[in-house]
Amino acid sequence: MKKLEQNGTITAFSREDTKVMKGIAVFLMLMHHLWTFPNRIYGGELLFRFWIFGQHATVFFGYFGIVCVPIFFFLGGYGTYLGQKGKRYDLIDKLKKLYISYWKVFLVFIPIAFLFFAHQPAYGEGPEIYACYSKFTWHELLSNFLGLSSSFNREWWFLASYVTALITFPVVHAAVQNKSLHTNLLFVVIASILMANIFPAIGRIDELGGLSNNYLYTRFFCQVSPFISCFWMGIVAAENDLLGRLRTAMDKAGVLNPLIDLAIWFGIIYVRQYVAGATLDIFYIPVLCVVSQNLLCHLRRTRTFFLKLGLESTNMWLIHSFFCYYFLAVVKLVVAPKWAIPSLFMLIALTYLASVLLTWFWKEMSILLQKVRTIAFQKETAR
Fold first, then answer.
1. Residue 143: exposed, middle, or buried by beta-carbon count in 10 A (0-12, 13-18, 19+)?
2. The domain containing residue 252 runs over which residues?
3. Of 9, 22, 28, 226, which sits most exposed with the smallest number of CB within 10 A?
């Protein structure tokens, strides 16, 4: 069903649908970081009762959770396109909003980290976890504040990669605008192969050995390259109404019902884990968006749950790893149930609560600052 967006655009995948999908991505992200790396958390691997294809279920599902990254990139490209449609693309404004969200978390959690978690007993895989905040330098502070380094929180690598994606938007938008869906899909496939395979391999050529030490090369062609094509696919999806077309085709084929939706989810999990890996993410993600949208139409409470997570997705992305890895007192609380699923929901609850409180804190600070400005202005005019 088509929906009218605030900017007048007709879309089959609404702003609310996007938030719901971000909520699913956040859920997968927390699951990935809590379940996939038992060597990082206090107490080691969490308990689960069964195995899947010879793997512990936590590792099987946790490893798939990394699909949250291409989902976020896809939704970023999709939302950026629809948000600027009919308007001039304002990169500075996009970067400002992104960095303000980042700094709101940084300015609260990094001081807490150095004040209360600088000296912790050894746990996890090494000092990069438990002693992350034991040594303070102004250089590291500035590098992390600008998003050039993620040494204060390794899961913040996404920031610089997403900035890179936003910078590429005008070029990709110009390349795909007013082109057919087939032409644009071919463009994304070729670009994906170049970015994920060809360009990173160039750095391994002996004659170009110094290239692997080049900051721009490693940032763009190594760190962001596996995912940026999903951002571009999001642009194509918005330009050519890919999600609407896909939904119509699947509906006509009679494959949009809850049971088949779940089967497609598990099928993609299996194919990504054991057959094609991440190379087909540009195709997995649109399909997952459509089947998730359809499935959650039948599961209203679950949809509301993911919508609430999606509304806090940026904060939850930036906050959760403090509770999962770095703040031992909170990590102990998260893993206290010992079992994987209760611990996951404990992490979700604590991260969500922290996000809500953070939003409240900055809102109150804004009100206080406005009052201070008003008083200062009144005193100035009274002179």
1. middle
2. 3-373
3. 9
**pTM reported for the whole predicted model:** 0.90
Taking alpha carbons only, the member of 125, 58, 130, 50 closest to residue 343 is 58
CB burial of 287-326 (b: ≥16 within 10 Å; e: otherwise) equals bbbbbbbbbbeeeeeebebbbebbbbbbbbbbbbbbbbbb
Q: Into how many domains does the chain fold?
A: 1
In a domain, 288, yes or no: yes
Cite the DSSP H helix spans in the chain: 15-35, 57-64, 68-84, 91-116, 127-130, 138-145, 157-176, 181-193, 199-202, 215-217, 225-239, 242-252, 258-274, 281-297, 300-311, 313-321, 328-335, 340-382
pLDDT in tens, 13-69: 888 999 999 999 999 999 999 999 888 888 888 888 788 877 788 888 899 999 999
Half-sphere exposure of 220 (CA within 13 A, CB side): 13
Select from 106, 233, 211, 102 the least CA-distant residue to 165.
233
In a domain? residue 79: yes
- Could you say which DSSP state residue 46 is in? P
Distance of CA 315 to the CA centre of its chain: 10
Among the listed residues 162, 226, 167, the one whose alpha carbon sits nearest the alpha carbon of residue 194: 226
Q: Are 287 and 232 in contact (CB under 8 A)?
A: no
